[in-house]
Amino acid sequence: MKLINVVAARPNFMKIAPVIRAIKKHNNRVHSSLDTHHSKLYAVLVHTGQHYDYEMSKVFFEDLEIPVPDIYLGVGSGTHAEQTGNVMIEFEKVLFKEEPDLVIVVGDVNSTLACALSSVKLHIPVAHVEAGLRSFDRTMPEEINRLLTDAIADFLFTPSPDADENLKREGIPEDKIFLVGDVMVDSLLFNLDKAKKSNILRKLGLQKELSTDRCQLPTDYALLTLHRPSNVDDRESLHNILEALKRISTEIPIIFPIHPRTRKQIEHFGLQDYFTKFENRMSTIGYGLYYIDPLGYLDFLKLMIHSKFIMTDSGGIQEETTVLGIPCLTLRDTTERPITIKQGTNILVHNNSERIIKEACKILDGKLKKGNCPEIWDGRSAERIVEIIVSDR
């Protein structure tokens, strides 16, 4: 059975890495004759090149031990229509050449929809990993990508029960829906021990080495990610968020691995004065809002593990903080991952300065929202996916 695994942007890498491992595990089992009922899976990895910045792409392949892509389309940036159209044109050529039995797409980026569309028009089955998530906000491009990909996919692998219910309400046949858990959590749990060996805390002045075998965290810190167009492309929204961060950063240092696009917008709007200059030396930092270059997966995970709380507009980080038990303030007014609010540590604060400050102060006062990790988020989601695929054959 020949598969094509598609990746395009940073969140995709964390989702496809466990699937690649699970395919390898399946093939090893077949090779050792432990599984006589199934044949090997031959997987081709296609990178569309939607993220073309080194730190946003190549370093993640290294950290997650993803093999070098077999095919790189090099699509790059552009409008939504340009990017989607270019991916479809280039990916169709791959489909004609490779003639796969199944195409696996993950997440909700433009490449997810583009590759799914190209496949189904050639009558090639599609599996969507992380299906059924809904923010119910159709102004988000990701929401359109999710809806359309789910409507045409043959296998819909969902991370949580609410995703199953969304798909059923939309008329998706139940025999296409498979609750498997969250592959982002697979990556998180698999890489925790490796991440703990990162020296990023000392590098940023957040950890002071006292002796060869003893370290101390002298200062709490908060972690920030910010990249969604609704937050960074609108000056008023970005200004409101930065005003809140400025106030919070007088109580705790805020570390901000900055997305290249966000950095560009901050400079465009002339908002650089909100940030404290980071000297990039191994000395303890003080209070302030510090932006640093983008980080690899392991370094960022190490920062997450030790942070007091996280402020983000990312979807995946809402899940990761729930698993790690770290308070999360989501700078959005909707989420496609409601389980992180109902069961996890997540709170929606949008770009409301007062709300952001209020919830951050609660955390600093020790009034933390308690959460529980969903039972099915056990690190075996990708193995379930592969089992379902081979069983269906």
What's the arrangement of secondary structure elements?
Blueprint: E1 2-7, H1 10-31, E2 42-47, H2 58-63, E3 71-72, H3 80-98, E4 102-106, H4 110-121, E5 126-129, H5 141-152, E6 155-158, H6 161-169, E7 177-179, H7 183-195, H8 200-203, E8 208-211, E9 214-216, E10 222-224, H9 229-232, H10 235-248, E11 254-257, H11 260-269, E12 289-292, H12 297-306, E13 309-312, H13 315-324, E14 328-330, H14 339-342, E15 346-348, H15 353-364, H16 381-392
Please provide a written account of the structure.
This protein is α/β, with parallel strands linked by helices and 393 residues long. It has 2 domains: 2-182 and 377-392, 3-Layer(aba) Sandwich (Rossmann fold), CATH 3.40.50; 197-364, Rossmann fold (3-Layer(aba) Sandwich). 44% of the residues lie in helices and 15% in strands. It has 16 helices and 15 strands. It has helices at residues 10-31, 58-63, 80-98, 110-121, 141-152, 161-169, 183-195, 200-203, 229-232, 235-248, 260-269, 297-306, 315-324, 339-342, 353-364, 381-392; strands spanning 2-7, 42-47, 71-72, 102-106, 126-129, 155-158, 177-179, 208-211, 214-216, 222-224, 254-257, 289-292, 309-312, 328-330, 346-348. A 7-stranded parallel sheet has the order 3-2-1-4-5-6-7, sandwiched between helices. Strands 12-11-10-13-14-15 form a 6-stranded parallel sheet, sandwiched between helices. It has a two-stranded antiparallel ribbon with strand order 8-9. β11, α11 and β12 (289-292) form a beta-alpha-beta unit. α1 (10-31) packs across α7 (183-195), α3 (80-98) packs across α4 and α7 (183-195) packs across α12 (297-306). It is globular and about 60 Å long.
